[in-house]
Every structure is written in C-alpha cells, then in structure tokens.
Amino acid sequence: MEVRELTCINCPMGCALTVTMDGGSLTVTGNTCPRGEDYAKKEVLSPTRIVTSSVRVNGGTIARVSVKTRTDIPKGKIFDVMKEIRAARVDAPVQMGAVVIADCAGTGVDVIATKSVGRA
Amino acid sequence: MQYHDIVIVGGGPAGLAAAVAARKAGISDILILERDNVLGGILNQCIHNGFGLHTFKEELTGPEYAARYIAQVEEENIPYRLNTIVVDITRNREVTYINREEGLVTIRAGAVILAMGCRERPRGALNTPGYRPAGIYSAGTAQRLMNIEGYLVGKEAVILGSGDIGLIMARRMTLEGAKVKVVAEIMPYSGGLKRNIVQCLDDYGIPLKLSHTVVDIHGKERLTGVTIAEVDENKNPIPGTEEYYSCDTLLLSVGLIPENELSKGAGISLNRVTSGPNVNDRLETEAEGIYACGNVLHVHDLVDFVSQEAALAGENAAEFVKRKASQAEADAAADGEKQKNAETAGERAAADRKRKKTVTAEERAAADGKRKKTVTAEERAAADGEWKKMVTASEAEEDAQPAHTDRRGHANGIPLIAADGVRYTVPQFLETDGMRDSVTVRFRVADVYRDRYISVYYDDQLISRKKKKVLAPGEMEQVVLTKKSLAEYPQTERITIRTEVE
Asked: Least packed by Cβ within 10 Å: which of A2, A58, B188, B198?
C-alpha cells in the first residue's frame, strides 16, 4: 500500500488530497468535488505536463525563440525534453507554430515555436 | 495639430483589445503608441502556458495569446507606432510622444485610452538591509533576460515573494539547470495561483516558506547569500529563526504597481488602493474622454480579464467619439440650417465643414481654459478628500458621499464602496445614465477567507449574496450589477460590496 499527498489545482480551494493505492485500487480522500478525484487519479497514474522553454536563434532579431511541446508529455520526461531543447539551435526566420524539434526525446511529441522571430 | 479619433497609450494586451473593439464599434481613425519595438507587451516574455482559457477556450502561451490580438490589429489595419514613448497627456486630450523618426510630436485625440500596464515593485521599496551587489533582479527582469535575451541569470537562486511571476521563474530557472533553493513569502499565504504552486514548486521539490522574509543580503560585488527569517503576525522578523542560504541570485516577486505617471500628469486622481485611476462604469477616468483599462487601472490575475475590460473601454471610447460628433453635427444643424431642404448634398458638405469647425472651436476654447487651470493643487486635494470620505462611508454613515454628486467628470455617479474584507472595486462609480444592461464589478479581498458570502447592498438593502468556499487576495473576484435591479431602487445613494460571515 502506498499513500500520496497532493494539492488539487482545479480551483482556489486547493484541497489537500490523499491518494491511497492498494494493489489495483485507488481511493482518494480530502476532495470536495469530483474534479478533485479525477485530478488525483490522473496525477498518480499518468501525470503529464506541457513543457515551455526557449531555443537559441542564429541571426534573429532576438536571441531566443519561445517554444512548447505541442501537447502534454509524461511528467517523468520533462528533463529529457529540456536536455534536447537546451542543445537545439534554429536559424532565423522562425515562424510561430514551426517544428523546432521533431519527436522530442522519444515522446512522439514535437517541440514547436510559440512566436515568430525575424532575421536581424 | 494632427487629430485622431482614438489614441491608445500602450500596445500590450489591454491596448490591443481596446483597439480591436473600438474598430469593431465603427471608429476607423485609431492610433496605438507603443514604447517597445514590438506589440504584445509583457506577454512576449511570458512564454509559459495557461493564457486564454476564458477567451479562446484553449491553453496558450503568452506570445501566442498576444499573436491572436496582433493578428486582429493587422487584419483591421489599425495604425500603430513602435519605439514611441508618450511623455505627456493633458486633460483635454493632447498627447505628446517622442520617437526617432518624428522627434517630439503633440497630437489631439477625440478619446484617449490609457493602457500603460504596470511595473514591478523594486528592491528599494522593501528596505532590506545589506549591500547592493550584482545578482538581485526583479522576477520580471530575470524573465526577460532569460526568455528573450538568452542569459542564464544565475546558478543558485532564492526567490522572495510568491507572486505568480516568482513561481513561474522558479520553474523556469530549474528547467534551465539552475538550483532554486527556496521561495520565501512574508504573508501566511501565497499570492500566486494554486496551480502555479503545484506545477512550479511541488513538481520540482522547491520549498515554499510562508511567513518568512529576507532580512539580510550578503556579498559586496556579487551576491553570495541571503539570510531568511520567520516573521510574526506583524511581519517583524523573529530573532533566532534566521537561516543562511548561499546563492548568487535573488529574485524579487513582491508586487506590481500600475504605471500612472502620465495619468497623474493629466491631473487624473488615483485610487489609493489600486494605484490606478478612479473610473466610472464606462471605465472613464475623471477626465472626460480619457479611459483606462488593464493593469494600469488595477493589477489583474488573468490576461483574459484584461482583454474583456479593455474591449469595454474601446467600445465606450468609440461611443464617446461618435456622441461628440453627432452633438457637434446637431449644433451645427441648429444654428446653421434655418431654411428647409437641408438634406441636399451640398448643404450636408457645408454642415460637415461647419461641424469640423465647431468641434475645433469648442475644443480649443475648452483646452485654453483648462490649460490655464491644469488642475490646481486645491482641486486635487478636494478630490482626494471626497475619495477618503467614500472609502469610510460604510463605517460612518453621516460621512457618506451623496449620490448625484457634482464631482467633475463623474456627475450623477453612485459611489461603489468596498467594505468588510473587500479591498477595492473597479469601477468606483456607477452612472445610471447610459448604464449598460449589466456592469461587471471587479475586486480583490484583503485576506484568505473561508465560507464567506459576497454581498451587494443598495444603501442598506441586501440585493444579492453569493457563498464562496474560499476567497484569496491572489484571485480577482467579480459581481455583476444589472440595470434592471438598480431601476427598482432609483433612490440608491451608494452601492456597497462586502464579505459576510454566516
């Protein structure tokens, strides 16, 4: 049996949730509404996040172009994704929505530009 | 002097949304003045996601949110000037700006929309002892350095203040390989959104120390560390709780202040709680035809609400310009057209010409009068005094500001009073003449409250109450007042919004 403590993020209430995992069954306590239960289950079973960062631009009007993973990725992959993002370089011009890194860190998710950067 | 129907000061989220709304309301002659070299304002450096859930029903990053509005501005061909800083606005709507191409220029505006945003509270406002070494940044400055200019601001950081920018930067620095040791917050609760505490701190195991503050800054040339101590209920450090953290970077996320130097210069009175102009339900300041929206009016939690508010300011400014024009037209028609058949094309042209003249003659006269006055100190003091009265009105009824005041610019205004845990309201006045069917009143509460009602009173009559499980200063709240309900109480002298226990 494993117990995890979480804070619900669905509303300002910020309920303190306790998730108890016993074999295949999950029980959530501390939630005030069903959204808390859904959140806790997802956080325990398959937590995901969208990662946002920036990538160095060669010859651009600004030094970095902001990027994000197109969809959410497994939380455990955040630092693998960041490693590729930090190593990446793009040449100006960059269009918003352009793929900067395809299939980043084996997640199957592209990293795309979230702004356009013109040539200097 | 060059004239534009609407001049918008600031090309961030508020200015953009105001411009688009004014154009959609039928005003073609709009000019946006922006001091940066791009439109979009602070959103350009807010590269994290979570913007636009209310407006676009999807989660966008800051630059993507800005791009949606910039695209609308481009589509509508709304003119804007970049690298252009406004240095003066007068009460009669003359706007002076500087840029490299034109030099110093003064233009006249049918209406002005203030959308200058806010800036961060600096270290100097905190009275923290210690040297002034390199390595201390406001969180927003660090954000710009990292996200746009491409510098890693430090390797070991402590963050003072748990506002959203501080939380976002804690995650951002961690992702870029820095070690964020602690976030210290002087209040017993965080000023940031729950979601940010979980996803920016908890996700990365960064401790948040509530009721703690920085009491000493170490290092002479470069920051070497800070001392953090717990504070008592009066926010005084408790001796013996000091703890030393070595770090090369201290980020300050200790509040935002609306940037109202231009408003002050125009003699517009500011609200002592919001640090923004006092406005009526049309978001018009005390100065006729000068509107305010976004973070220059009051600091918002979500940009979506900035866009909503700014759109309202844009629509109202458009209405004002159109009303002025039709008034001038009517005046011209009244004194000019005594014979019938005034509708011929030739005469209409004549009327048009006359209208133009009337406008300028009128406005020039008004301008001259006001320029001489430029709002004397006594007037400002009087306005302040009246405001003080309003704030305390709920406590001392005999001090209540009478409704239908002759207060300049806010004639016929019913004051909105914030009481019992509600810190302020925007707008501060409601004008029943020309009131829209519903008016959204935004406010913040003074502390974290559980199980309280938000109640609206017309004088002593309870109009509505809504139970809230939790209220927090970090989240903006709102109530909606309807024209219909106000019509049932035509004698209302003041509207009070308060929290109530029960």
From this structure: A2
Interface mutation vs chain A, best among B147, B151, B164, most A CBs within 10 Å:
B147
Q: Which of B38, B39, B47 is the mutation pick for testing A, counting most A CBs within 10 A?
A: B47
Measured between beta carbons, the chain B residues lying within 8 angstroms of A68 are: 47, 49, 61
For the purposes of burial, counting CB atoms within 10 Å of the CB of B96, is it exposed (0-12), middle (13-18) or buried (19 or more)? middle
**A14-45: pLDDT as tens digits:** 888 999 988 888 999 999 899 999 999 999 99
Of B250, B165, B239, the residue nearest B200 (C-alpha): B165
**B311 Cβ partners below 8 Å, 6+ apart?**
B17, B18, B20, B21
Structure tokens that stand for B336 in this block = 């000019």
Q: B83-128 pLDDT, tens per residue?
A: 999 999 999 999 999 999 999 999 999 999 999 999 999 988 888 8
Length of chain B: 502
A50·B59 Cβ contact <8 A: yes
Q: B390-396: long-range contacts (C-beta < 8 A, 24 or more apart)?
A: B390/B415, B390/B417, B390/B428, B391/B417, B391/B418, B393/B417, B393/B494, B394/B419, B394/B420, B394/B496, B394/B498, B395/B419
Cβ atoms of B241 and B231 closer than 8 Å: no
Phi, psi of A89, rounded to the nearest 5 degrees: -135, 140
